[in-house]
Amino acid sequence: MSASVTSRALDLLGAFDTDHRQLTLSALARRAGLPLATAHRLVGELCRWGALARLESGEYVIGRRLWDLGLLAPVQAGLRQAASPFLHDLYGATLVTVHLAVRDGCEVLYIDRLSGHVSVPVVSKVGSRLPMHATGVGKVLLAHAPEPVRAEVLGKLTRVTPYTITQPARLLDQLRRVRAEGFATTGEEMSLGACSVAVPVRGPVGEVVAALGLVVPDLRRERARLVSALQVAAQGISRVLASAQWK
Amino acid sequence: MSASVTSRALDLLGAFDTDHRQLTLSALARRAGLPLATAHRLVGELCRWGALARLESGEYVIGRRLWDLGLLAPVQAGLRQAASPFLHDLYGATLVTVHLAVRDGCEVLYIDRLSGHVSVPVVSKVGSRLPMHATGVGKVLLAHAPEPVRAEVLGKLTRVTPYTITQPARLLDQLRRVRAEGFATTGEEMSLGACSVAVPVRGPVGEVVAALGLVVPDLRRERARLVSALQVAAQGISRVLASAQWK
DNA sequence: ACTTGCCTTCCATTGGACGGAAGGATCACC
DNA sequence: GGTGATCCTTCCGTCCAATGGAAGGCAAGT
Prior knowledge:
The structure is a homodimer. By secondary structure, chain A is an alpha+beta fold. Chain A folds into 2 domains: 5-70, Arc Repressor Mutant, subunit A; 73-243, GAF domain (Beta-Lactamase, 2-Layer Sandwich). Chain A has 9 helices and 8 strands. Chain A has helices spanning 5-14, 25-32, 36-49, 64-72, 74-94, 136-143, 147-155, 168-181, 223-243; strands at residues 52-54, 60-62, 97-104, 107-114, 129-131, 184-187, 195-202, 208-216. In chain A, the strands form 2 sheets. Chain A has a 6-stranded antiparallel beta sheet with strand order 5-4-3-8-7-6, with helices on both faces. In chain A, strands 1-2 form a two-stranded antiparallel sheet. In chain A, helix 2 (25-32) packs across helix 3, helix 5 packs antiparallel against helix 9 and helix 6 (136-143) packs across helix 8. At the A-B interface, helix 1, helix 3, helix 4 and helix 5 of A face helix 1, helix 3, helix 4 and helix 5 of B. The first copy, chain A, binds a DNA duplex through helix 1 and helix 3. Chains A, B: Residues 65-243 form the IclR-ED domain. Chains A, B: InterPro entries: GAF-like_dom_sf (IPR029016), HTH_MetabolicPath_Reg (IPR050707), Tscrpt_reg_IclR_C (IPR014757), Tscrpt_reg_IclR_N (IPR005471), WH-like_DNA-bd_sf (IPR036388), WH_DNA-bd_sf (IPR036390). Chains A, B: This is Glycerol operon regulatory protein.
């Protein structure tokens, strides 16, 4: 299938992921399923253009030009920079890990993360994707997702920790409350020792465009304070988004 | 020249920049110098792969997959996340715009920026490049750059504001002091009303890998405090970088 | 010295990219 | 409703440029 010449180059790029940030030529060829000679030539072109770069070690890595390009993606172009100051404020006020995430298909995509030195260890990384049913931001986004998405996610609720919610009925019930109360919580459902709170970030016409969340070791005592801090920040972001001409 | 099939696709990607984040098919073709039919086919492939995405309006933008990929670039992979908590601390301690930058050829490339609501308006954006001789981080990086780079930069010191340093001798003198004193400053040399301080960030073997800077409206009163805050942060980053196994 | 793993270059073959042309859709203006 | 602009999409015969096997060169490991 495929094998269109362009897609070969793309297959090469696709060989990189979080676990494979640097690859030798042959590893690259192997992972992309291309003959060595072909890979060699394509990689050469990609390097010349700046999509890849070669380390002194001879291994290849993603180049600066792709990094540049990535920054232009609308995933974050508007949202991320609008949110940035509010994330800092939020961090300053709470001193815990702050997350900004959007829905990508049936997963949560982390757009930005802000954490200090002394935070709960968390799984998320900027650019990584996690299941929606086991994270705070995920629940928020799921609660406001179109029906077909919700159906698909409810279809396979994979267990991550002993506390992960795997019964569709129970999750549905929670989602209803998320919509009613305006925030979602989790308790060690994604990783042990980590709880989270999250609220929706709304766009100009009230639609949910992202979710803003905090990760803390324990939720019971501070919930109210955290939720209100989150809501202040979320509203601030919405305000900026609305006024940003969406140029 | 070029015209290799792969590079056509890359030319299409190259048609995007900060001023052109969304393009129609024909604009894309025009900017890339390709026949419409060809562009159409290639863009189709790029979309299918996720390198581009199509808005409801019909315009094309950089897709999420490229955003993902960009995050893997070593420009920031290690540096940026190592620095992140320290940038926040620094912001918390000073409440002014914080910059993290590296040298890219003969320019300064901004890797990360952190600014609150109430800061001096600054030109820089993450992913953007500015001249080295007119910015604080630029002077730091230039002071520790290899000789040929320094020579080239000194060759054309373009004027940006009335205060921009355009005499090679004077800049050289400043660079010497930057190396001696361990920090650089600017006074409205890049944009009026903005001054800056910056210090080097050193890697495991003492080489300068990045620069850390602050932008403030006025430097005179607080210089000492800002410099020491910067140095604490820079040392912290270096420490993390060194211990990070450089996996 | 032999093997096994990398990377690089060459070049004859051929299959898939190319792009002109034609068709459709949507606007705006007369 | 006609006319002209500007956009997007599809088709298909030509032909050229990507392909990848083969051969050669390093460098390490046994």
